[in-house]
Amino acid sequence: MGNSPGGQSAAPHVAAGLGSILPSGVVAAELFAYPDGLTAHPAEEHLIANSVEKRRRDFIGARHCAREALRELGEAPVAIGKGERGMPLFPRGIVGSLTHCDGYRAAALAHSLRFRSVGIDAEPHGPLPDGVLDSVSLAAEREWLTTTSSDLHLDRLLFCAKEATYKAWFPLTLRWLGFEDAHITFEIDSATSDSGAGTFHAELLIPGTTKDGGAPLVSFDGRWRIADGLIMTAIAHG
C-alpha cells in the first residue's frame, strides 16, 4: 500500500472485518493499531490544528483509511475535507463513510454510479452507559431488547445501527435525523458470547426527501457483525 503523508508506511487492512458485511463494489479499509509516524495530510491539518491528541489520531487514521480505499477504487488519494455537521467531503463521484472508536479506525467508499450512499459505524462491544438507552431508542426497540435472549450487548448494537443509518441519510438529505426518527429491527444469523452477525432494517419515520430530487428515502437495509470485542454496522444504499 501507500505511505503516510509523513513518509512512513502505514497501510491498513483492506476489506477485513468491515469488508465482510459490505457488498461487492464497496471498498473498506481499517486500522486496528495506529501506525508510528502517521501524520495529517497537509491539506487537512487546519481542520484539526487545535484538536486534542485523541481527536487528531481518530481524524488522521480514518482519513488515511479513506485514501487507501480511494486507491482500491482506482482514484487519487486526495485530501478529504469536512462539510456540514462534520460530513466528510469525498471526491466527486465517490460516496462513503468514516468511523472510529478505541483501537479502531475505518472507511468504506464506493462509486456513486453504483451506490447512493454508504453509512458505517463501529463501537466497542460493551453495554451502553447507564441512562443512555432511553434517549437513543424507541419504545418498540426497547421492548425487543427486553424480550430477546442473547449474550451480546444488543443495546450497543442498536446504537451502532442508528449511527450508520444517520451517516447513510445525511449526505442525501443534508437534514438531521434524530434517534427517534428511525425504527431499527434486527435479524440475528448466529451468536455466541463474543461473536454474532446478522442484518438490520431501518424504517425512516420522517419524510426522506433528498437534496438531488432523487427517489425519497423510505428505509435502509444493512448488516452487522460482532467479533473480537468490536461491533460493526454497515449500510450500502443503492
TrEMBL record:
<keyword id="KW-0460">Magnesium</keyword>
<feature type="binding site">
    <location>
        <position position="177"/>
    </location>
    <ligand>
        <name>CoA</name>
    </ligand>
</feature>
<keyword id="KW-0808">Transferase</keyword>
<dbReference type="GO" id="GO:0008897">
    <property type="term" value="F:holo-[acyl-carrier-protein] synthase activity"/>
</dbReference>
<feature type="binding site">
    <location>
        <position position="121"/>
    </location>
    <ligand>
        <name>CoA</name>
    </ligand>
</feature>
<feature type="binding site">
    <location>
        <begin position="99"/>
        <end position="100"/>
    </location>
    <ligand>
        <name>CoA</name>
    </ligand>
</feature>
<feature type="binding site">
    <location>
        <position position="122"/>
    </location>
    <ligand>
        <name>Mg(2+)</name>
    </ligand>
</feature>
<dbReference type="GO" id="GO:0005886">
    <property type="term" value="C:plasma membrane"/>
</dbReference>
<dbReference type="InterPro" id="IPR008278">
    <property type="entry name" value="4-PPantetheinyl_Trfase_dom"/>
</dbReference>
<feature type="binding site">
    <location>
        <position position="63"/>
    </location>
    <ligand>
        <name>CoA</name>
    </ligand>
</feature>
<feature type="domain" description="4'-phosphopantetheinyl transferase N-terminal">
    <location>
        <begin position="43"/>
        <end position="110"/>
    </location>
</feature>
<dbReference type="Pfam" id="PF17837">
    <property type="entry name" value="4PPT_N"/>
</dbReference>
<dbReference type="GO" id="GO:0009239">
    <property type="term" value="P:enterobactin biosynthetic process"/>
</dbReference>
<dbReference type="GO" id="GO:0000287">
    <property type="term" value="F:magnesium ion binding"/>
</dbReference>
<protein>
    <submittedName>
        <fullName>4'-phosphopantetheinyl transferase</fullName>
    </submittedName>
</protein>
<feature type="binding site">
    <location>
        <position position="167"/>
    </location>
    <ligand>
        <name>CoA</name>
    </ligand>
</feature>
<feature type="binding site">
    <location>
        <position position="163"/>
    </location>
    <ligand>
        <name>CoA</name>
    </ligand>
</feature>
<feature type="binding site">
    <location>
        <position position="55"/>
    </location>
    <ligand>
        <name>CoA</name>
    </ligand>
</feature>
<dbReference type="InterPro" id="IPR037143">
    <property type="entry name" value="4-PPantetheinyl_Trfase_dom_sf"/>
</dbReference>
<keyword id="KW-0479">Metal-binding</keyword>
<dbReference type="Pfam" id="PF01648">
    <property type="entry name" value="ACPS"/>
</dbReference>
<feature type="binding site">
    <location>
        <position position="121"/>
    </location>
    <ligand>
        <name>Mg(2+)</name>
    </ligand>
</feature>
<feature type="domain" description="4'-phosphopantetheinyl transferase">
    <location>
        <begin position="117"/>
        <end position="189"/>
    </location>
</feature>
<feature type="binding site">
    <location>
        <position position="123"/>
    </location>
    <ligand>
        <name>Mg(2+)</name>
    </ligand>
</feature>
<dbReference type="GO" id="GO:0009366">
    <property type="term" value="C:enterobactin synthetase complex"/>
</dbReference>
<dbReference type="InterPro" id="IPR003542">
    <property type="entry name" value="Enbac_synth_compD-like"/>
</dbReference>
<dbReference type="InterPro" id="IPR041354">
    <property type="entry name" value="4PPT_N"/>
</dbReference>
<dbReference type="InterPro" id="IPR053566">
    <property type="entry name" value="P-Pant_transferase"/>
</dbReference>
